[in-house]
Known about the structure:
The complex is a heterodimer. Chain A is an alpha+beta fold.
Amino acid sequence: MNSISSTRSSFYRNISLPLLLIGAFFLSAFITSSAYAGESLAGEILVILASEQAGNIDPSLASIAALRKPPFSAFRSMRVMSRSPVSVSSGQPVTVSLPNGRLLSLQLEARLPDGRSKVRVSIKRPNEKDYLPLLEVIASPGEPFFVAGQKYQNETLVIGVTVGKKTS
Amino acid sequence: MNLDHIEDDLLQRYFDGELSNRPLQQVKEHLDKCHVCQKRQQSLVQLHSLLAQNALNLAEQIDFNRLYGRISSEISRQKSATFSERLRAWWDSLQLWQPQVWAPVSALAVAGVLIAVVSISRHDKIASDRASGSPNTASSSEIIRVDFGGKPGTVFEVALAEGTRTAVVWINDDVEDLGIQ
Lengths: 168, 181
């Protein structure tokens, strides 16, 4: 009886440090992966219908400086059609339906050390060749970049894509 | 089994029910014919029942509750090992380790810890850069690659405040696809 219990305790003593070290390895791997993997960024897909005809500029667009500059300064009316908050991650692309029935797909490709994000955008048409097969952008956090030019109801769609939030 | 009688060991095993089919059959056949061996077997039965009876009588005289109480109080009185004693025993057990076991395991653990430290410090630096708005933090968007899918298109850079700029991709939707792949 004594010899059995002493053999057992010796066994547990001998495997305790390897188990401890292996546990430390997996713990550190878990900490590392949780620091990066699964990270997602809040973003927004803003869809504007713009026209060169005289009209109103939606007041909510006043804070977007780029819309007051060329090529957008040619538009004299702008109407917000939709604002879609999205969570952009590297795993699965997020898809947003556009008013013309096309699908805008947005996927995070990488986080850069300077705080910007590399994202991939595409616009697909159901049962047709992709409208915009590929667009890769390094996006500044909180500052939208734009995909414009699609015609809809004789006006022009301007799509602002924002990834991340401004830190200052 | 010898020619005359069953050997003691075989008879005992027969009594204990440990024989396989063939020797069991042989012993049975011999017992049917041999009165000497029958008597020896009866003696075994009597001895067994006598021992069992004695054990029962003995057990009746023992106060088991009192016995268990003494055992448990003795166990609780025993001093448990102090932390330093346990630490020393653990250290002693390490001395028995073979290098081929702990060397790769230690290397693995050290590599894991290093990866975690480097990754976390890099992550913290990015976070602090963002928080402090250091000059490293670029604040312009730029196009890396664009495939217009055969349509004509233009890439603009729109200048914003403080020297930053953002990107605009303009697809000329008035023109039919050029069929360029």
